[in-house]
TrEMBL record:
Protein name: TM2 domain-containing protein
Residue ranges of every copy of the TM2 domain listed in the record: 11-55
Keyword Isomerase: no
Keywords: Membrane, Transmembrane, Transmembrane helix
Cited Pfam families: TM2
Topology within the bilayer: Multi-pass membrane protein
PANTHER family noted in UniProt: BETA-AMYLOID BINDING PROTEIN-RELATED, TM2 DOMAIN-CONTAINING PROTEIN DDB_G0277895-RELATED
Cellular location(s): Membrane
Source organism of the structure: Flavobacterium cheongpyeongense
Annotated transmembrane regions: 12-31, 37-57
InterPro entries (UniProt xref): TM2, TM2D1-3-like
């Protein structure tokens, strides 16, 4: 995955709560279309699910963003390792001459 693409996938808690309040569209925003359709069909779990979401959305956003941050860290580590390997190869090549 591309680091810039992953950064664009980081979600905002403010946007998520606005989508929850106005449209009930918060699961789609987080990329969970199956839950979103179920949420709409059951009218937010007869509004019980909607109330529970009010208190659990921040945790869902944190989990979503944590996975993205982990992937970004892995990409950055791989890039750093590749840069160190290139630098070492250049140093060894220069030393060999």
């Amino acid at each position: 995955m591309n680091k810039h693409y992953l950064q664009s996938q980081i979600k905002s808690s403010g946007t998520t709560y606005l989508l929850w309040f106005f449209f009930g569209f918060h699961y789609a925003y987080l990329g969970k279309w199956g839950l979103q359709i179920l949420y709409w069909i059951t009218f937010g779990g007869f509004f019980i699910w909607a109330i529970i979401d009010l208190f659990t959305l921040s945790g869902r956003i944190a989990n979503h963003n944590a996975l993205i941050f982990q992937q970004i860290d892995e990409i950055e580590k791989r890039d750093r390792d590749a840069e160190q390997a290139r630098n070492l190869a250049m140093l060894l090549a220069a030393k060999g001459n």
